[in-house]
């Protein structure tokens, strides 16, 4: 049968248009990525997938990465530019409950994984170490249990790790320093035990508050931590001496080591005026001795808490001369003698907040907010100083 050139042209155009209409239905996403998404959803209890949630829109009768997404896969995933690979899995905080499918490890182009603020439980799959391009891993505020998988330290592209507010237990892997590009780590509010391992070299912020870490803070753990700005290790079981090298870390700005069991504090003057230390919280430890005068040598220090320890002796006059100090908490110790006048003068008293209460001070007026709560009883102070009188002149 002979077909004219015009008829052939019309036929080809029709076929082209028909194929164009069908193209959105063609499977674009790599089949293994689609299978991983199916396994991920199947591991979540259906009763916890609300009709308005992201996961409720995941209908695998269409391709996950196909466009436009008007009714299905409207949120929760991001695909690459050619719509063939999943690059981000970021869930809404909708109360999803279930385990984390190990099959997620086949999403090898994944850059961001964030399922925080839900109710996932069980162990964190060690197979997630296959996600070698992962930059953000956030599993915070769930109920994950078991150990921190040592295999996760092979995620060398990772720059943010947040598994806070879970139930991770046991010790941290000694290979934590292998996370060579990580900038922030938050493992707070878990059940981690043991000592602090060597930290990653490019770490800027470290938060492992409210766990059961113990032992001393060793200089070897912080070796090479030249970019570390924030350290939050409060509410653990650290003990021993806090040595001066720690406060001289070159980029250190904020420190929270409160609610531990440290017994002694060594503070050296910074060797230059370039120290960036701004805030220090060492409250609720077992620190003894005199208040460290050298804290006054840190040029930018504006907040200092040494409350509820076992410090004795007078408040250093240098503290009263430090103009950058805006918050000073010394309550709950056994300090005696007179408070530097500057704290109650117009120049300093109007801007300083904090407390000198619950000590053995002689000249802290009850009319000042800084002197609340009231000082300890004379009998308690005499007992603390071996029955000697409270006057500061008695010590020199």
Automatic annotation (TrEMBL):
Concerning InterPro entries, the annotation shows:
Leu-rich_rpt, Leu-rich_rpt_typical-subtyp, LRR_dom_sf, RLP29
Q: Where in the cell is it found?
A: Membrane
Alphabetical GO CC annotations of the entry are: membrane
Keyword Transmembrane helix listed: no
Q: Which Pfam families match?
A: LRR_1 (PF00560), LRR_8 (PF13855)
Q: Where is the signal peptide?
A: 1-27
Sorted alphabetically, the keyword list is: Leucine-rich repeat, Membrane, Repeat, Signal
Q: Which domain of life is it from?
A: Eukaryota
Q: What PANTHER family does the record point to?
A: LEUCINE-RICH REPEAT (LRR) FAMILY PROTEIN (PTHR48009), LRR RECEPTOR-LIKE SERINE_THREONINE-PROTEIN KINASE GSO1 (PTHR48009:SF9)
Q: What is this protein called?
A: LRR receptor-like serine/threonine-protein kinase GSO1
């Amino acid at each position: 049968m002979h077909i004219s050139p015009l008829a052939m042209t019309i036929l080809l155009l029709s076929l082209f248009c028909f194929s164009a209409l069908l193209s959105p239905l063609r499977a674009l996403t790599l089949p293994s990525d689609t299978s991983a998404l199916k396994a991920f959803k199947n591991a979540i209890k259906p009763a916890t997938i609300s009709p308005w949630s992201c996961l409720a829109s995941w209908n695998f009768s269409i391709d996950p990465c196909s466009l436009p997404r008007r009714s299905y896969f409207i949120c929760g995933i991001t695909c690459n530019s050619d719509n063939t690979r999943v690059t981000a899995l970021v869930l809404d905080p909708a109360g999803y409950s279930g385990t984390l499918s190990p099959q997620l490890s086949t999403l090898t182009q994944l850059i961001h994984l964030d399922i925080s603020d839900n109710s996932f439980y069980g162990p964190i799959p060690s197979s997630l170490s296959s996600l070698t391009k992962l930059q953000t891993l956030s599993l915070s505020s769930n109920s994950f249990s078991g150990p921190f998988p040592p295999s996760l330290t092979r995620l060398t592209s990772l720059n943010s790790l947040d598994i806070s507010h879970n139930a991770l237990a046991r010790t941290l892997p000694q290979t934590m320093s292998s996370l060579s590009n990580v900038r922030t780590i938050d493992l707070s509010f878990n059940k981690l035990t043991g000592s602090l391992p060597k930290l990653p070299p490019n770490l800027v912020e470290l938060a492992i508050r409210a766990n059961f870490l113990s032992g001393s803070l060793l200089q070897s753990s912080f070796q090479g931590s030249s970019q570390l700005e924030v350290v939050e290790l409060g509410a653990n079981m650290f003990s021993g001496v806090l040595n001066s090298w720690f406060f001289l870390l070159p980029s250190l700005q904020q420190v929270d080591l409160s609610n531990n069991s440290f017994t002694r504090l060594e503070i050296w003057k910074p060797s230059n005026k370039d120290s960036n230390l701004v805030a220090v919280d060492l409250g609720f430890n077992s620190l003894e001795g005199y208040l460290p005068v050298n804290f006054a040598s840190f040029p930018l220090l504006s907040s200092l808490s040494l409350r509820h320890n076992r410090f004795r002796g007078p408040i250093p006059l240098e503290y009263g001369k430090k103009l950058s100090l805006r918050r000073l908490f010394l309550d709950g110790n056994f300090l005696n003698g007179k408070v530097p006048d500057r704290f109650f003068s117009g120049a300093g008293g109007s801007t300083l907040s904090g407390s000198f209460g619950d000590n053995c001070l002689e000249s802290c007026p009850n009319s000042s907010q800084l002197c609340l709560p009231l000082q300890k009883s004379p009998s308690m102070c005499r007992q603390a100083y071996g029955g000697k009188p409270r006057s500061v002149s008695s010590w020199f």
